[in-house]
Amino acid sequence: MSGGDDSPAAGTTGLGLTPPKPERADTPDTAAGGLRRVVVYGRWPLVAMAATVALQSGERQSLSEAVNGIQHQFHVSDSVVGFLPFAMALVGVVGALPFGYLADRMRRAILLAGGVAVWTVCMALDAVAGTYLLLFVFRLGIGAMEANSPAAISLLSDYYPALERAKNMGLYQAGALVGAIVGLAAGGLAVSLGGWRWAFIMWVPLGVATVFFVARQPEPVRGCQDDSWEPPPATVEAATALGLDTLNRLPPPGRTATCDYATATNREVLRELLAARSMWYGVMALTVSQLLLNGLQFWAVPYFERVDGLGSLGASAVAAPLALGAVVGILGGGYLADHLLRGGMTNARVFVVAFGSIAATIVLLPAFVITNLWVTAPLLLLGGIVVTLPVAPAEALMTDVVVAEFRGRAAGIRAIVRSLSSAGPAVIGVTSTTLISRLAIDRADGLRWAIVALTPIYAIGGVLMLLAARYYPADVAFVAAESRRKAGGDE
Predict the structure, then answer these.
(1) N or C: which end of the chain has fewer CB within 10 A?
(2) Considering just the CA atoms, what is the radius of gyration of the chain in Å?
(3) Greatest alpha-carbon span in the chain
(4) Residues whose CB is less than 8 angstroms from the CB of residue 2 and which lie 6 or more positions away in sequence, other chains included
């Protein structure tokens, strides 16, 4: 299967006017010596998954638009309001494992739709909150979307081929960027016209529509794409003609399964997941680096309001280059990693994550040190590209190294660890408040230097990611071998 071919044989049919019925195609099965049945799902499932993260990200961005109004309404400091995004992550921590378990056991589309429904109800309650405490409490319910993400990750790994996984993860995560752009544009306008409560009200009808859209999506067979690591025949023939080794040749697995996947206990599941070392290096790297990403998403608009004296709409417009660059980065990272993978670089997804993380610090540090908008805006555009370049390949590589039956629980555990990165807004808020009080500087400089202080952490995440290169090929080989073993009926 070609990672860049959108023909039906590649499993990526075009977008139609109505959700297409899954089609089937026969492709060679080298493990079983015959044909394996590949279901072609088209792009509607990907659109549905992307819609869920669009809601989540867009609401967070519009919350940023509402910060000043919330502070004025309830008289709370930067430190206190900085914990609002963290409230959503609290439920993500508590619910990640139960949702991950359910994602491995039940129809994932229905589970995901249920999470969107809870999110929509709590969004409406946030809009009518009469106190800051109620606003905080209702945000706990919004965390249902955060806890439900394992179902979306598990579904995407079974909808589309492994060689296209980073690209499709990028398209999925692009939903977050679409949501963020809508949150910046429509959120700023809604808050300007109707007040901060409209930052929540505007998302309720979109949430209702998404519930029904997601619930209609088909349920793929678990693990049906995990043996699709072979390069397309034309690529192999071209490599052979040039005297090159076969592309994407994986090493021996290096380990064997230690349990029955269908009946594994929690301890056995954890033991299997701990053996996938590259996943843990990946999750540590992203947790560290996304402290900055989450912090910038929350504080970007208040930053330009304070540092440059802009209004809500003006600050949103200046922050837009960061969002536009992010669109290029999150899509480009997936396409770049898959292109390099098809070219024979087995660790492509690891290296793209590491490069993007280190480059982000190099670009964004001067963007916030310098306060001239003519300098800052171009740097933000470039910074938006490199800061999101790691997102899609990182999610793909952490999915690559886990067997299909455990992907929901693995994603749940990763969500728990990565929820620590949701403290980014709180870290910046607390640092800002401390600098203002200790150094007697104004609110603008306090926030600016708080962001500057956190920026180098992205490069630390990139260095951690490089450690995964030693283990990733063997971890992928294990998952591919297990998929072939199950397909051949050797249980």
Answers:
(1) C
(2) 22
(3) 74
(4) 10, 163, 232, 234, 235, 342
Distances in Å between the Cα of 237 and the Cα atoms of 8, 244, 331 are 22, 10, 29
The domain that holds 475 is classified in CATH as 1.20.1250.20
DSSP string, 296-349: HHHHHHHHHHHHS---HHHHHHHHHHHHHHHHHHHHHHHHHHHHHHHTT-TTHH
Please answer whether residues 369 and 452 qualify as being in contact, where contact means their C-beta atoms are separated by less than 8 angstroms. Answer: yes
Closest to 101 measured CA to CA, from 391, 407, 398, 338:
407
pLDDT digits 0-9 by tens, 234-263? 555 554 454 444 445 678 887 888 888 888
Distance linking the first and last C-alpha atoms of the chain: 26
Instruction: Calculate what percentage of the chain has a pLDDT beyond 90.
Output: 25
7: in domain: no
The number of distinct structural domains making up the chain is 1
Phi-psi region of 196 (alpha: psi -120 to 50; beta: other; left: phi over 0): alpha
Give 425-466 as a 3 state SS string.
HHHHHHHHHHHHHHHCCCHHHHHHHHHHHHCCHHHHHHHHHH
Confidence (pLDDT) at 400 = 93
- Domain residue limits at 405: 24-231+271-487
Q: Which long-range contacts (CB under 8 A, 24 or more apart) does 189-195 make?
A: 189/313, 190/62, 190/65, 191/62, 191/65, 191/66, 191/69, 191/312, 192/311, 192/312, 192/313, 195/69
Residue 17 lies in a domain: no
**pLDDT value at residue 50:** 93
pTM to 2 decimals? 0.75
Is residue 376 in some structural domain?
yes
Cβ pair 354, 463 in contact under 8 A: yes
In sequence order, the β-bridge partners of residue 27 are 36
Q: Which two tokens stand for residue 156?
A: 């995407």
Task: For residue 34, list its beta bridge partners.
Answer: 29
Q: Do 202 and 345 contact (CB within 8 A), yes or no?
A: no
Sign, CA dihedral 408-409-412-418, equals: negative
259: amino acid identity, one letter: C
Please indicate, yes or no, if residue 241 is contained in any of the structural domains.
no
Kindly tell me the burial class for residue 488, based on how many C-beta atoms sit within 10 Å of its own C-beta (0-12, 13-18, 19 or more).
middle
Q: What is the mean pLDDT of the chain?
A: 80
Secondary structure (3-state) at 26: strand
Token duo for residue 423 = 């403290």
